[in-house]
Write a structure and sequence with these properties.
The structure is a single chain. By secondary structure, the chain is an alpha+beta fold. Helices cover 17% and strands 24% of the residues. Strands 5, 6, 9, 12, 13, 25, 26, 27 and 28 form a nine-stranded mixed β-sheet that branches. The chain has an eight-stranded mixed β-sheet with strand order 2-3-1-35-36-37-41-42, with helices on both faces. About 5% of the residues have low confidence.
């Protein structure tokens, strides 16, 4: 401190305190980028995690594959998700953060038919050729008690039924019902009636007949299977227990992923148990059922069976404000839209697992502002109001754009889109995201403060649904009046009427017909505050209800089906405009329609306009009813659900961005991290990816960045079950060390920014105790982390000290190898720059090499040296940034050297380098460079080399010889 800082007035001793003990902020540790699948989390954006617990919270735990169960409902867990194991292996060492990029399907803007993301049955059926085309089949159910039987020429009235389930069938498969027909003639039975009304049996079960081909792609050699089922989920005959729910068992050719005998040619998709219970369907209920091929608006390529598009985010809302006008004029559809909540690249996960509650709605109690407050709470979809499970919450939100608690500022409104021209992510929005799950989309008028300040979220537009069909009547004939082989139910088609939308009773028999109404399940809403038996009725959340029945305190397992994307390329905001065959919103819920009763408040749609509601919004809030729940809807993963691993390598043979969405998705994910100023990393891996074009792209990106290293896996070293079915396990070893070496040499890779290993290894999943074969890149990511934790990045990640996989060097347990690599094979591999993983009887499994993929011999053909140089470049770059824009003079040069030389000396002390020299003077930064605003320094280093070969002479001498000679 300068003496001029002291204040001298009279003689004395002046003391000042100077604290030089501050620890300077060190640069953040730099870790790897892992690209892979996971059960949840932000997709196609780099997301940093600091620990494995943080990873599990954001992306879920490890997935070993062979998940089984109800795959269509509960998710595809049939193949291992190697990225999750890589994250666990690295993060267990706790040396640096990890950046994860979750994969969801994204097709190229110029994708051809084969390159489209998503899935579809082989072809959506036509009304005259159902057998050969497959598609979506809707099972509709009516109560037998609603039947009015007429004469053959007078028809029958079946009443109002609902869509109970959807079956999906590929070419060669057909789903029908068999049994007693409701034609007024006792004992009339048919086999395989399509679009025919069938009675349930004496045990209230329906009988389905599955006609399917042994080869899913053919209609020959068809076999028939009959299945009795009901809708009681406590019964062994429950529909989801009796039918195949694995879409992968329809993919062809048979034997690709499973034994040929396992293939069915169809799968059961959505079931809508909640709606059936509301109809009164129970184990004791006699039913009428009929199965129709279904599609939207007569379009042969549109409907439930065609879901070909990139992944799409879920949406909740629009949330609407309360009524501020006369009750008699109230129309909730005209209420002010306030905001929507959009998924943060979560795909379908939100509507399958979450719902959102608006709670603690408070009108302003301050003269300083008219804006009230509210909370936004993301809840587990399967919780109940009796037992709430909060996933995220944001309290004290407001619609005041000037407030720090403005909802967009509080939660965040930023989102990323992929720019296909610049090949990078572009960010939009004003406020950083605080939520991992959602971001806010504001109504433009609300965002600029152009709406009434007293508005509060008081309801929402319910998700869209297919339009109900009322009183459909028709003969089993085509447009020319000729009997058809099968009727086809078009949803909401105004152009095709009459017989083409008919409801038949006996296929192909003219004159026997019926009238019926077809409903499509809506999102059910809570009716009464007393539902579920809450001790405090004001704890009830009106709006979306997920319980099994109105009185139940258990959730419905299938309620997530209600949020399904209706069809591909569905409008982003269906509340604007008209969509033929679709209700843009199933309903509009408003708390204004709450009515008071002896059992607490209840919801009666239209009660405010009828002036029978509880009163104004202030009356409702003052009574303690200040919360409601809304669903998410419309998310889609953009993945092919008919394969165990949508990114399997055999599906990308000779692929390009336009011919394969999987290839395009992976290339886009790799390109996302191409800019070193966007993502900081020192390792890049996509575990399990063996496509040579994409792994080469990873190396190219790493070399262009010059600050990271790619760990790649080689093709055919091990062929897991999700790549192809092999009845003989020995066939899973697809190559030999010699052939792998030859194949790598033929690729002519010459880069120190890549490395690879051989063979695959086995781990044990901690959650399921299941053994899993994993690619070597997974184990090596753990080895690199643990080696850094034990020593530093410049120590060789190999050998018994740092590469002992049996001893836990991988961070996860390694118990076996797919192939024991003998000494001769290790020599072949190492000469080809493939690092062997050896298994020794006495010392266990160990990494026995550390070469990069550089062909030319130099210090950089070793991983430890390449990692050292990357580390030095990264750290010195960070230090050098402190002198940017300073004067280019000797004092600045000295300051630069004073930062760099101690850093290099420290690396030398820690055995990273054996010597170094830093030159920064007039010989490097010449006057010409100074005129160009350049400071130029030279740093010369001598890397410390790892011992890879030990030569020892054992000299046997005679007894009288002297060792000193």
């Amino acid at each position: 401190m300068s003496v001029k800082k002291f204040k001298f007035v009279s003689p004395g001793v002046f003391i000042n305190e100077i604290d030089n003990s501050f620890v300077p902020k060190s640069a953040e540790a730099i870790g790897p980028v892992v690209i892979g699948r996971s059960t949840r989390g932000i997709a196609m954006e780099p997301t940093k995690v600091q620990s494995y617990s943080d990873f599990v919270e954001k992306f879920g735990d490890t997935v070993p594959g062979n998940g089984g169960g109800d795959i269509y409902r509960d998710g595809n867990l049939q193949s291992p998700m190697y990225g999750t194991y890589s994250a666990k292996a690295f993060l267990k060492a706790n040396v640096a953060p990890l950046t994860y990029i979750r994969l969801l399907g994204r097709e190229h803007t110029q994708a051809d038919t084969d390159g489209q993301a998503g899935w579809k049955c082989l072809k959506t059926p036509s009304k005259v050729d159902v057998w050969h085309n497959g598609g979506a089949y809707g099972l509709f159910v009516w109560l037998s008690s609603s039947l009015t039987v007429g004469e053959a020429d007078g028809g029958s009235a079946i009443g109002t039924g609902s869509l109970a389930a959807v079956f999906y069938a590929n070419s060669g498969s057909l789903i029908t019902l068999s049994g007693n027909v409701i034609d007024g003639t006792a004992g009339t039975d048919i086999t395989g009636g399509l679009a025919t009304a069938i009675n349930s049996d004496s045990s209230n079960r329906l009988l389905a007949e599955i006609n399917y081909a042994t080869g899913p792609a053919a209609s020959t050699n068809a076999t028939t299977k009959q299945i009795l089922f009901n809708f009681d989920d406590t019964s062994d005959d429950y529909i989801r227990n009796k039918f195949n729910t694995n879409p992968q068992l329809t993919a062809g050719p048979a034997g690709t992923f499973y034994p040929s005998s396992s293939y069915t040619g169809y799968w059961l998709g959505e079931t809508f148990d909640q709606e059936l219970r509301m109809m009164g369907v129970s184990a004791n209920t006699s039913l009428i059922g009929a199965i129709y091929p279904i599609a939207l608006s007569g379009a042969a390529t549109t409907g439930l069976a065609t879901m070909k598009q990139s992944f799409r985010n879920d949406t909740a809302g629009w949330f609407i404000g309360q009524d501020l006008g006369r009750a008699i004029d109230f129309n909730p559809q005209l209420s002010q839209k306030l905001f929507r909540l959009r998924g943060r690249n979560q795909g379908a996960w939100l509507h399958e697992n979450c719902k959102v509650s608006i709670e603690k709605i408070r009108q302003s109690n301050s003269s300083a502002t008219e804006y009230g407050t509210f909370s936004v709470v993301i809840r587990n979809l399967f919780d109940t109001d009796n037992n709430i499970e909060v996933m995220e919450r944001f309290d004290n939100c407001t619609l005041d754009p000037a407030s720090p608690n403005f909802i967009a500022r509080k939660i965040g409104d930023m989102y990323h889109t992929w720019d296909t021209t610049s090949r990078r992510l572009k960010r939009y929005g004003e406020y950083a995201n605080s939520s991992q799950l959602i971001y806010v989309e504001m109504n433009a008028d609300v965002e600029v403060g152009a709406t009434d300040a007293t508005l509060l979220p008081f309801g929402y537009f319910a998700p869209p649904k297919f339009s109900d069909l009322e009183q459909v009547t028709g003969l089993m004939t085509d447009t020319a009046g000729n009997p058809m082989s099968a009727s086809f139910l078009y949803m909401g088609d105004g152009a095709i009427t009459g017989s083409n939308k008919g409801f038949s009773m006996i296929a192909g028999v003219e004159g026997l017909f019926a009238t019926a109404s077809f409903n499509f399940p809506p999102h059910r809403m809570r009716v009464s505050a007393s539902d579920g038996g809450l001790s405090d009725l004001t704890n009830a959340y009106f709006g979306f209800s997920t319980t099994r029945t109105s009185t139940s305190t258990r959730s419905d397992k299938n309620v997530g089906f209600l949020g399904r994307l209706l069809y591909q390329d569905f409008p982003d905001d269906p509340t604007n405009g008209t969509i033929e065959g679709v209700d843009g919103f199933g309903a509009v819920f408003s708390m204004n329609d709450l009515s008071s009763s002896t059992n607490g408040y209840s919801y009666v749609s239209g009660s405010r306009a009828n002036q029978t509601s509880a009163g104004s919004y202030t009356t409702i809030l003052n009574a303690g009813y200040d919360q409601f729940t809304a669903p998410f809807w419309g998310g889609f993963d953009g993945l092919n659900i008919e394969v165990p691993d949508p990114f399997y390598n055999n599906g990308m043979t000779s692929a390009t961005e336009t011919t394969s969405y999987a290839y395009n998705t992976l290339k886009e994910a790799i390109d996302t991290v191409a800019d070193p100023e966007f993502v900081n990393m020192n390792l890049l891996t996509t575990p399990g990816l063996t496509n040579t074009a994409l792994t080469q792209h990873m190396i190219n990106i790493s070399q262009e960045r010059a600050d990271t290293m790619a760990l790649i896996d080689l093709p055919n070293v091990y062929i897991p079950a999700h790549e192809q079915y092999e009845s003989n396990k020995s066939d899973r070893i697809g190559t030999t060390p010699r052939n792998a070496a030859i194949a790598l040499r033929n690729r002519a890779i010459d880069s120190s920014y890549g490395a690879t290993f051989y063979p695959w290894v086995q781990t044990v999943d901690a959650t399921t105790s299941q053994t899993v074969w994993i690619p070597p890149s997974v184990a090596m990511l753990g080895v690199l982390a643990s080696s850094q934790a034990k020593s530093d990045v410049w120590f060789a990640p190999a050998g018994f000290n740092r590469g002992g996989l049996t001893d836990g060097a991988a961070g996860i347990p390694i118990t076996n190898v797919t192939e024991r690599v003998i000494s001769k094979d290790r020599d072949i591999l190492y000469e080809a720059r493939i690092n062997p993983i050896a298994s020794f009887p006495s010392t266990g499994i160990v990494v026995f090499g550390q070469k990069t993929l550089q062909e030319r011999q130099s210090a950089l053909d070793r991983i430890n040296v390449r990692r050292l140089v990357i580390y030095l470049k990264k750290q010195i770059s960070i230090l050098a940034s402190q002198v940017l824009f300073e004067q280019n003079v000797q004092a600045t040069w000295n300051r630069f050297k004073s930062m760099i030389e101690p850093f290099l000396a420290n690396v030398k002390v820690q055995f990273g380098i054996t010597d170094y020299k830093l030159i920064l003077d007039e010989s490097t930064t010449t006057p010409d460079l100074i005129d160009q605003n350049i400071m130029y320094a030279k740093i010369m280093i001598k890397p410390a080399r790892a011992i890879e070969y030990i030569a020892i002479d054992f000299v046997v001498t005679s007894t009288g010889a002297s060792f000193d000679d």
